[in-house]
């Protein structure tokens, strides 16, 4: 019986130590943002990252620092989209569309890093072109 108490006490101490030594907010880092949160970060507001990229890429000589900075944000959140829950509709369909979106955001980031205007413009068009298809099938109404 004494061995059982010792084992239980040891496990309790180890659990407390593990909890106390975990970095603050570590559980929050594992939380996947919702599709709405991701789209808001990328597309909402007058000076959103996607609008910044589009405006810069309309120029013959874009400010690549601005493009790269915005593309980094777009890729960071875009890569999380396939992990998000489908707001509505078929999960497999959402995953396929979200994976294509994430792939295009990665392509945009790489093109921005390489200062490849043609590839950056194409990736931006692909990202923007994916809206209607995904929204028609998966965006919540209202």
Please explain how this structure is put together.
It is a single chain. The chain has helices at residues 2-21, 26-29, 35-43, 49-57, 64-78, 91-114, 117-129, 131-138. Mean pLDDT is 84; it is low at 10-28. The relative contact order is 0.12. Helix 4 (49-57) packs across helix 5 (64-78) and helix 5 runs antiparallel to helix 6. It is globular. It is mainly alpha-helical. It has a single domain, classed as Cytochrome c/b562 (Four Helix Bundle (Hemerythrin (Met), subunit A)), CATH 1.20.120. The chain is built from eight helices and no strands.
What is the topological layout?
Blueprint: H1 2-21, H2 26-29, H3 35-43, H4 49-57, H5 64-78, H6 91-114, H7 117-129, H8 131-138
Helix pairs in contact: 3-5, 4-5, 4-7, 5-6, 6-7, 6-8
């Amino acid at each position: 019986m004494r061995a059982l108490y010792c084992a239980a006490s040891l496990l309790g101490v180890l659990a407390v130590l593990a909890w106390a030594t975990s970095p603050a907010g570590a559980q929050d880092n594992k939380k996947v943002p919702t599709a709405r949160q991701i789209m808001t970060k990328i597309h909402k507001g007058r000076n959103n990252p996607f609008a910044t990229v589009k405006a810069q890429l309309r120029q013959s000589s874009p400010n690549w620092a601005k493009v790269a900075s915005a593309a980094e944000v777009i890729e960071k959140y875009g890569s999380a989209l396939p992990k998000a829950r489908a707001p509505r509709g078929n999960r497999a369909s959402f995953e396929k569309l979200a994976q294509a979106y994430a792939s295009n955001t990665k392509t945009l980031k790489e093109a921005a890093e390489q200062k490849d205007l043609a590839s950056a413009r194409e990736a931006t068009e692909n990202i923007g072109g994916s809206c209607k298809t995904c929204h028609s099938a998966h965006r919540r109404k209202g």
